[in-house]
């Protein structure tokens, strides 16, 4: 993919977290925070967009949490500091239907994602150790089907492959729900309007910023809708083939700090 000729018009940078901004150890680099501060002085705004819960995202971006937009739960919830921008919870009548379908494969581990907490059935210590990376707040309950509070989405995990073992089971729900392969091991099921693009479009409208002034980074299928809202859409070198095809440009992998490489170029273009 070729490089864009002029990125000096950018006013909003939006990046996915896992596989994109976060390195393979799930950390944000010190260089990113330096670039964030420098770009802020140039009037560039920033949004983090992830399938992670809100608390997990801000824990990674603690120094700047009140200065950014946070698109959590794949767009089901969007916040700016303490202000709610978007909330599209899952219809409660469909929750148990999805859970019953997931039960057909014992290797699938479902998570009920509420606004401030997540809920799992504690049957696998191995899965709980994985969960701690993505969910800073979670609770073990006996039966997910008996949970009667608001749910933003259902996340489902498989240790081998979400695309092979989870998606075929839940793909029939695509007629009425948003079903996204959000990572090698994860599939998310949520409200039909709960996607990162829906939340980003609302943020763009609030800021009066269009696609020609928006830069977006992503690596997986749950990033496709927001990539489509940017004239400067970047796929990571480690991205899913669908993302590599959809994005206009490509940067280095998350291991090689591909987001920071482009942000350095953006900063230089604004000097």
TrEMBL record:
Pfam families: Hydrolase_3 (PF08282)
CDD domains: HAD_YbiV-Like
InterPro entries assigned: Cof (IPR000150), HAD-like_sf (IPR036412), HAD-SF_hydro_IIB (IPR006379), HAD_sf (IPR023214)
Domain of life: Bacteria
CC annotations in GO: cytosol
GO molecular function: magnesium ion binding; phosphatase activity
NCBIfam families xref list: Cof-subfamily (TIGR00099), HAD-SF-IIB (TIGR01484)
Full protein name: HAD family phosphatase
Lineage: Bacteria, Pseudomonadati, Bacteroidota, Flavobacteriia, Flavobacteriales
């Amino acid at each position: 993919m070729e490089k864009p000729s002029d990125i000096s018009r950018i006013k909003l940078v939006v990046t996915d977290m896992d596989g994109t901004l976060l390195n393979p150890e799930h950390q944000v680099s010190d260089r990113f925070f330096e670039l964030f501060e420098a770009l802020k002085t140039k009037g560039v705004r920033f949004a983090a967009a992830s399938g992670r819960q809100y608390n997990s995202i801000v824990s990674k971006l603690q120094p700047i949490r009140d200065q950014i937009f946070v698109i959590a739960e794949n767009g089901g919830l969007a916040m700016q500091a303490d202000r709610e921008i978007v909330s599209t919870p899952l219809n409660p009548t469909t929750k148990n239907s999805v859970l019953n379908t997931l039960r057909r494969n014992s290797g699938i581990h479902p998570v009920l994602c509420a606004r401030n907490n997540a809920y799992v059935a504690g049957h696998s210590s191995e899965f709980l150790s994985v969960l701690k990376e993505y969910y800073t707040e979670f609770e073990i309950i006996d039966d997910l089907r008996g949970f009667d509070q608001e749910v933003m989405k259902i996340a489902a995990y498989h240790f081998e492959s979400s695309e092979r073992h989870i998606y075929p089971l839940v793909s029939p729900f695509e007629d009425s729900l948003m079903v996204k392969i959000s990572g090698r091991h994860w599939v998310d099921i949520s409200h039909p309007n709960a996607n990162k693009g829906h939340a980003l479009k609302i943020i763009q409208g609030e800021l009066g910023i269009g696609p020609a002034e928006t830069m977006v980074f992503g690596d997986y299928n749950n990033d496709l809708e927001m990539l489509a809202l940017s004239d400067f859409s970047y796929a990571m070198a480690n991205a899913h083939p669908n993302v590599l095809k959809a994005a206009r440009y490509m940067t280095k992998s998350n291991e090689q700090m591909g987001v920071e490489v482009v942000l350095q170029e953006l900063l230089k273009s604004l000097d």
